[in-house]
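Example is below:
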Amino acid sequence: MTDPLRPGDPQRIGPYPLEGRLGAGGMGQVYLGTSPAGRKVAVKVIRPEFADTPQFRERFAREVDAARRVGGFHTAQVVDADPHAESPWLATEFIPGPTLQQVVTEHGRRPEDAVLRLGAGLAEGLAAIHNCGLVHRDLKPGNVILAADGPRIIDFGIAHAPEAGPMTRTGAIIGTYAYMSPEQVRSAPVSPASDVFSLGSVLAFAATGQGPFDASTVPAIIHRVVSEPPRLEGLAEGGPLHDLIGVCLAKDPAQRPSAAEILHRLSVTGPATTPVAAGPLGRRSVLVGGIAAAATAAVAVPAFLLWPDSDPKGKPKAGPGKSPTPARDPAKPVARLSGNTDNIDCLAFSPDGRTLAGGGLEGEVRLWHLASKRLTATLKGHTGSILSLVYSPDGRTLYSGGIDQTLRHWDVDTRAPKGVLAKYSGEFESVNNLSFSPDGKTLAAGVNSGGLKLVDVSTGRSTAPFKKHTGLPNDIAFSPDGKTLATVGERDNRDPVELWSVETGRLIRTFVDDREKRYTSVMFSPDGKSLAATGDDVKVWDLDTGRVTATFTNRDGDGAGAAYRPGKPGTMVVAGSGAVSREPTDPTGKDVCLWDVSAERVVTTLTGTTSKSHPLIGTRALTFSPDGKTLAAVLVRTTKNEGPYYDIQLWKLP
């Protein structure tokens, strides 16, 4: 999938006009480009911190020359490069198709015979790389494209000649920890055997649906890679795939077979079950000897053998004697994110929809990669609970507000803290909520006793232009045009819902000021024509007339959470109570309903995964992805003898 170019992205690299973003690798950004003859290419532009090092440029030039010689059917061919450009770049042929990561994440683990065929294709690709004197060093599911004619290894941006010495800065390790070899995580010299270890991890992921050293933190992953045996649940011990993966994952590089030896044992000629005659492999490869008979096809593996129930063109197809795979029930969640904190107060999607950020009681911002459903980073800096999170519109910075009186910001690409943007005085001060202006220049911050602030993100300077705004802001929201700000908050035992002019600071309209109704959140519809507030019920107002156009009441009497669905005019999700003080037997809050606002009717009632030990008692932090196709929410659970327990769950909506 290609993402649009962002402001500041180049429009052309060398002779290649750029059409969009393909992703980011360990050494730079990857773009989709077009050759002068109209062919698609993947262009990788090296990050400035590497480009500024003369030694890197020299080594990069050598490696480009070597990578040009890599051939074979299972690699992306290097077609052009300029290591001497202001921003060095490398162009390879563009290989259409999903990554192995995407296929397994969306459709589950692959059949064993298909994984053996995948292993043959990847081994052939690695053998071609190694024959040119290179080590790939970042073989992982995201760098394996399942093309129509077989798997392809991509991303030569960090391919490395072993004799050239370390290419990274002191203390830096390139690659993805869960698929690194023990020598890589120790920053020791690498050899082709390191790629073989990564191959074993990739095949384990394809066969089991998870990495053999997966853990919720980087230190835990490193410990498992270096010190623990791989976890291969679901693979029969003594079976050909189990043995192949096991020997690839030997901690000692000398005990691993070479890519050529793996390919030799997996290759077949003639009938699908006839192995190629094999010569002696030596001590390293004795465990691989029994797997040839299980490799039941040639090494050029068509991608549709790895995709679930589909033909080469991607159309659903049932196998012989099988019924078509039933359609997924959109009412049920597709995933539960692991590695969550004990108490989660806020969620935020990145603008590209690929990352979900969460913050809560532990004072840590946690980031989940949505495609893999894995925790990828834990950002530390706050000394107390995190109450609010928001991404900048360009997606480059993440902002967090906490009970420690600070508004902090983080570099999204590097995950590095950028420090405290603003700090507010007061014994019980906290930053309760945040909203970004559409132009990305101003943050609105609801401060516990300091009221409503506007923060210049370039300077951190806070102003308070809303002189008549008093009390505690429960929630704030910029309008889509950035001209107005909606607020709801506690004042004199009331929760007024109000609209303010950003330019003048004056109060434009009060929508509700009822002592009998309590409201906790406020939001604009995506088209800017309506305003909604949630609390004891959900009300929607027309902004032109100020009249109530809809009122929704959950069947349990509560409507504590709601969110408009992007891209679906007039549709919002409404959830039950977010309170955690209710008795476990109280059914309040079990419904999450998708509403057609204009018709005032429920389109779909969503359900969370059930748990007898942790029954559901509430829902909070409803958040849509920017494209409106994914809904994230925090489900609050408890038991009679325990405090609340928090799940982050995801739904895919039609």
